Amino acid sequence: MKPSKDNIIGKVPRPPIELKSASELAVMRAAGRKAAEVLQKVSKSLRAGITTKQLDEIALNEIRSLGAKPAFLGYRDYPATACISINNELVHGIPSSSRVIKDGDIVSIDLGVIHEGYYGDTAATYAVGNISQETQKLINVTRESLELAIAQAKPGKRLGDISWAVQAYAENNGFSVVRDYCGHGVGRRLHEEPSIPNFGKPNSGIRLIPGMVLAIEPMINQGNYDVKTLGDGWTVVTEDGKLCAHFEHMVAVTEDGNEVLTRI
Ligand code: MF3
Ligand code: CO
Ligand code: CO
């Protein structure tokens, strides 16, 4: 999502962060699990020759068979179930019957479900066929930056610790961190407070407390961090045309640390 400025600048009063009770967390655990199951199902069909529209149909069928609803379809008039973004496309790629996956592509699939009124949201980037070592490194570093961020999502830590974990690891590996999109709280709405930038200062920002559910989603570029939106109004691409990667997990902050709700 686009970062909310008040969260970054810290001048405007922020809307409150909605903490989830144990019973809400139980529902969100199921929502997260369903999103993860759909992502896994779609990723198993990902291969050269399939269209992104076919993948989208698999996603919608799987969501329905799990008894959930597609979260993105109709969200701000988004026209599909999944966001499928290829190579230099970062996020919000619209599935299309004319878009055929090719050998050597890297493909980010982002999936959202609504289960009993609560959102599940998860994403991952996959290689199709043969990719270069440098491209594999981009995928690995992005995935690992998410794990490092998750390790910071504990009571007593602060939002900036999550942001810094992503930024430091990505930049130390020679990549750049997208500024224009960030992670978010999640619950009864897809995008809740707080905004979770993938860049920031350690030991800054709000303190994390049990009951927060955070969608942490590093978006990392091989070239510079600038991105732009295509004429379809949705597809976000790197400005320099170089590759990018995106992973997302929903993480509940608990008394003991955290629980990743979208890991299966
Ligand atoms: N899944 C995106 C996120 O992680 C939001 C997609 S909204 C859509 O925040 F409308 F593009 F589907
Ligand atoms: Co998402
Ligand atoms: Co998200």
Structural account:
It is a single chain. The longest helix has 24 residues, at 22-45. The strands form 4 sheets. The chain has a 5-stranded antiparallel β-sheet with strand order 8-7-9-14-15. It is an alpha+beta fold and 264 residues long. It has one domain (18-260): Creatinase/methionine aminopeptidase superfamily (Creatine Amidinohydrolase). The chain has helices spanning 5-9, 22-45, 52-65, 133-152, 159-172, and strands spanning 69-70, 82-86, 89-91, 106-115, 118-127, 176-177, 183-185, 192-196, 213-216, 219-221, 227-229, 236-238, 244-246, 249-253, 258-260. Helices cover 29% and strands 24% of the residues. The protein has 5 helices and 15 strands. The radius of gyration is 17 Å and the shape is globular. The structure holds 2-amino-4-trifluoromethylsulfanyl-butyric acid and cobalt (II) ion (2 copies).
Bound ligands: 2-amino-4-trifluoromethylsulfanyl-butyric acid, cobalt (II) ion
Strand order of the largest sheet: 8-7-9-14-15
Level of helix content?
25-40%
Q: Indicate the structural class.
A: alpha+beta
Task: Describe the secondary-structure layout.
Blueprint: H1 5-9, H2 22-45, H3 52-65, E1 69-70, E2 82-86, E3 89-91, E4 106-115, E5 118-127, H4 133-152, H5 159-172, E6 176-177, E7 183-185, E8 192-196, E9 213-216, E10 219-221, E11 227-229, E12 236-238, E13 244-246, E14 249-253, E15 258-260
Helix pairs in contact: 2-3, 4-5
The structure holds 2-amino-4-trifluoromethylsulfanyl-butyric acid and cobalt (II) ion (2 copies).
